[in-house]
Amino acid sequence: MSPENGAQPHEIDQAVLDGQAPYHRRALAFYDLVVFRGSAPWFWRCHPSNFEQLYRTSIGAKHLEIGVGTGYLLSRTRFPVSNPKVTLADLNPATLDFTAQRLRFVETTKVVANALEPLPVPDESHDSAALSFLLHCIPGSLRDKGVAIKHAAAAVKPGGTVFGSTVLSSGVPVTRAGRWLMGNLNAKGVFHNDQDSLGDLRAQLEQNFDDFELVTRGSVGLFRARKPK
After folding, report:
1. Which fold has domain 9-226?
2. Fewer CB atoms < 10 Å away: N or C end of the chain?
3. With b meaning 16 or more CB within 10 Å and e meaning fewer, what string describes 170-204?
4. pTM confidence score
5. DSSP letter string over 136-176?
6. Methyltransferase type domain: which residues (predicted)?
7. What gap in Å lies between CA 151 and CA 10, rounded to an integer?
């Protein structure tokens, strides 16, 4: 496992730093239960099997995970090779350490990185890149923070795959309970998706890829895009 590197906190917008602050080690211990067994199926109406299938059908031998969470999906997927290499990119050292420990039997590299800035990895160096449940946590509208998709694409080799998921607030069905939780999380600064629409997500994918798939499950947009060879 390589040393951490990347952007320094003083270079990053404070709202972005505030958004990742709640993900400290104690909270991460409950993250999987709260998100994948709680809010995703019950509030966003998206069963965890949808995320797991996306990973199984999209992940490459050398993978870049942008916004790592706890590594839950990475730990449950099947890589196409027996010796995958995974780069973990996140602003939060706690999530990087937690996920690296969870993936301790996989070769991992940790980088401190801001998805809104060019990533501190070589261009076209990975077979796949994922932005899972990340965009709805980043301040701003998808018209602005969609640049994270562009940065992910830059890190992927020709023919590689960029995939991910995000909770949307318009253009998708949102239950009354989902709308309540979404409002609560936006008020706390954990979510920043009150302007996030399905149309804007599609537009960001169209700007960066000619070949992509975008489907919805409940309030969640799931996407997979192929970089031209």
Report:
1. Rossmann fold (3.40.50)
2. C
3. ebbebeeebeebbeebbeeebbbbebbbbebbbeb
4. 0.89
5. GGSSS-HHHHTHHHHHHHHHEEEEEEEEEEEE-SBSS---H
6. 64-161
7. 21
Q: How confident is the model at residue 25 (pLDDT cuts 50, 70, 90)?
A: low
The CA distances from residue 197 to 25, 140, 170, 183, in Å, are 31, 12, 5, 15
CA distance 121 to 10: 20
Name the pairing type of β-strands 126-132 and 211-217: unpaired
Q: Give the Å distances, CA to CA, from 24 to 66, 93, 95, 97, 110.
A: 17, 9, 7, 11, 17
Q: What are the tokens at 35?
A: 């998100």
CA dist., res. 52 & res. 225, Å (int): 17
Provide the 10 A C-beta neighbour count for residue 149. 26
What is the phi/psi pair of residue 44, to 5°?
A: -95, -10
